[in-house]
Known about the structure:
- This protein has helices spanning about 5-15, 25-35, 50-55, 60-75, 95-110, 110-120, 145-155, 160, 170-185, 200-210, 225-235, 250-255, 280-290, 315, 345-360, 365-375, 380-405, 430-440, 470-495; strands at about 75-80, 85, 195, 215-220, 235-245, 245-250, 260-265, 295-300, 325-330, 340-345, 410-415, 420-425, 445, 460-465.
- It is of the alpha/beta class.
- It has 3 domains: about 5-110, Winged helix-like DNA-binding domain superfamily/Winged helix DNA-binding domain (Arc Repressor Mutant, subunit A, Orthogonal Bundle), CATH 1.10.10.10; about 140-380, Aspartate Aminotransferase, domain 2 (3-Layer(aba) Sandwich), CATH 3.40.640.10; about 380-495, Alpha-Beta Complex (Aspartate Aminotransferase, domain 1), CATH 3.90.1150.
Amino acid sequence: MDRQLICELVRKRLETQASGQLLHNQLYLALRQAILDEQLQGGDQLPSTRQLSQELGVGRNTVVRAYEQLLMEGYLEGRQGSGSYVSETLSGRETFSAQKRLIGTRREGLSRRGNQIASHATSSTIQRGAFIPGVPDTDLFPFATWKRLVMRHMSRDKGRLLDYSGSGYGPLKSAIAEYLGVSRLMSCQPQQILILNGSHQALDLCARMLCDSGDRAWIEEPGYWGARNVLRAAGLETVPIALDEGGMAPQPADWLHPPRLIYVSPSSQYPTGTVLSLERRLALLEGADSTGAWIIEDDYDNEQHYDNRTVASLFGLSRKQRVIYLGTFSKVMFPGLRLSYMVLPEDLANAFQIGNSELYRGGRLIEQAALAEFIAEGHFSAHIRRMRQVYRERRDVLQAAMTHHLGDAVSASGGHAGLQLLYHFREPVDDAMVATHALAQGLVVRPLSMYYQGREARRNGMNLGYGGVPVERIETAVPLLARVVEERLRAARGLASRPA
């Protein structure tokens, strides 16, 4: 087939695809399906990456990534000095039928839960650059110090630190309890603390130890998609509870069908940055006490706050111990550390320790021992203080640049804590299309609409992370993003002005 015709074929296929996937994945899927449908035959030469990127109006790297995936999977073959061709080994109807059966079987072979997990996947393979939300700057982490502490325990204590652990390394739990007493005004004992491999594991453990299949879990709307997906995968019915300026706002009618779990991020709601008001905190605690619900308090980024006040934790306010507190080191140190912790009511601590050992096993004691010393020697607090200044500057630069380039086309929320800012569009615009076009410019934007479970209440906007983006990159990336937003706004206005 002529390469110009291939460009047109791919363009038409992209126009009919859903926009939820990353752009290079959409292109990969469009090309793969054209091959499987025999619209592209064995031996057909594909357009060069430069030609296809120009014809589609996308970045060349987007095309390169799609081609590389197809080459790796055997759909394409490269010929030295000649380009990329549809693999000759795929010629023939029998081979294509077998490929289609294989793909279908994989999908049909999943359980209902597996299909749900796969179909609702929202995590991104891209975890660096402008504007990934919630990602710290790992380049500024003191890895030399961290390596020294890890190697110290690798050589000195490796015998006892290579075993499974029940609830975590004792000195680390003591250090966390002391740290929370100072930073969060929480009174807890080390035996109430359980060390885990990330907040998702913590949520899964809560769901399995406290709930039965079909139980209700309230989640914030909009809210963290990861929590929603984990709770759903554990068999819970997730019920979205809308937010207002005071945070999660359950209505009297909601309490008529009380949940088993209430998932909330009160100190800095994700993604809006809203702080749960004291009135709402007390009301949630009262509701949990009277209905037997458990509150999961996700304090995922409280270390990164930019004013002189720190909001008291729900855990510290709960007199009847109905709150489970989640904390993580991934946002402060580096995501690949995968160490989090939960602080449990005294009556739950022993059962959760048993559950964790039975379901997941504990481990990573060498990293836990190194982290205990990292905290004890003052490196943890020093890193927080240093990064707080860095992130505050980046937040301010992002806010100023967005105001300069987009003016009142967008409005921001949040910013008192965390590593991201949420921008709302003042006019109706497809935020998924904004994200798709931004990706073609090398920018990762999380559309606000993806944080909603229900369709009725969805608002459009952009969640922009600044934690891992140096100031100079923010200053060059915002003009590119602004052009994308302006183009989509003009397109939306054009559609709105057409006669019915």
